[in-house]
Amino acid sequence: MTSPRTRERMVQRLRNGGIRNRAVLEAMRRTPRHLFVDEALASRAYEDSALPIGQGQTISQPYVVARMTEALFQAGPLDTVLEVGTGSGYQTAILAQLVRRVYSVERIDVLLKQARRRFSELQLRNIRLHHSDGGMGLPQYAPFDGILVTAAPLGIPKALLQQLEIGGRLVLPIGPRDEQALVRVIRTHGGYEREILERVSFVPLLGGVR
Ligand code: SAH
Questions:
Q1: If you count Cβ atoms within 10 Å of the first and of the last residue's Cβ in the chain, which end, N or C, has fewer?
Q2: Closest C-alpha to 107, from 115, 118, 99
Q3: Per-residue pLDDT for 169 more than 90?
Q4: What is the CA radius of gyration of the chain?
């Protein structure tokens, strides 16, 4: 149930669901999602559903990971990406295979430590993890070509807009639990362009660390 064949079926479902970006599909084919969930859930790792990862958090559904990553890359390759909400580290691992460097921020230390172990097992060496409130971004490493947020704020955090490179893209869910939209913001010379992609359901972006 955790075999490459099961993963191949997951990729086929993503294709059927409209995911077209080859590099994204390839990264998802290569990445053992079952290593990012508790052993007891490993047999369900390739279903298209979110799963609990402890601390009241969830690993995002494969389709949503694919869709967000594709939305981030639509206009071409990116060099540095900031992810807010490391969680299990699955989305981080996908990004790490597509860009030169990923910075990822998580507010819950226990999750961050587990993710760190997974990255070292998988020999993903271009990920920099930070234990902090991602709503503030990571000003010391800004600007970023892409920013991807995997927990939902009620509005777009200003700090994240400010830390976007000109031409850079921010993909994030916005809104309260049952009425969230996935939004993409592109920074232009003159300002920001915003487009709504689809309805989604994420855990809330919370302040503070623990
Ligand atoms: N990309 C993750 C999604 C995990 S759920 C995965 O696929 O596993 C969202 C994560 O965002 C949770 O781990 C939660 O703790 C984290 N989070 C919520 N608010 C945050 C904040 N302000 N700063 C950093 N991380 C935050």
A1: C
A2: 115
A3: yes
A4: 16
| CATH fold label, 4-200 | Rossmann fold (3.40.50)
Find, among 117, 109, 105, the residue nearest to 210 by Cα.
109
pLDDT of 3 reads 85
Give the global pTM.
Answer: 0.97
Residue 206 CB: number of other CB atoms within 10 A?
Answer: 15
Q: Are 206 and 151 in contact (CB under 8 A)?
A: yes
The response to whether residue 59 sits with its C-beta less than 6 Å from ligand 1 reads yes
Summarised one tens digit per residue, pLDDT across range 27-70 is 999 999 999 999 999 999 999 999 999 999 999 999 999 999 99
What are the residue ranges spanned by the domains of the chain?
A: 4-200
Ligand 1 in reach of 205 Cβ (< 6 A): yes
- Measured at the CA of 14, the angle between CA 11 and CA 20, to 5 degrees, comes to 100
Q: How many CA atoms lie within 13 A of 63 on its CB side?
A: 16
DSSP structure class, residue 50: -
Size (the chain), residues: 210
Ligand 1: which residue has its CA nearest to atom 16? 85
User: Is the per-residue pLDDT at 74 higher than 90?
Assistant: no
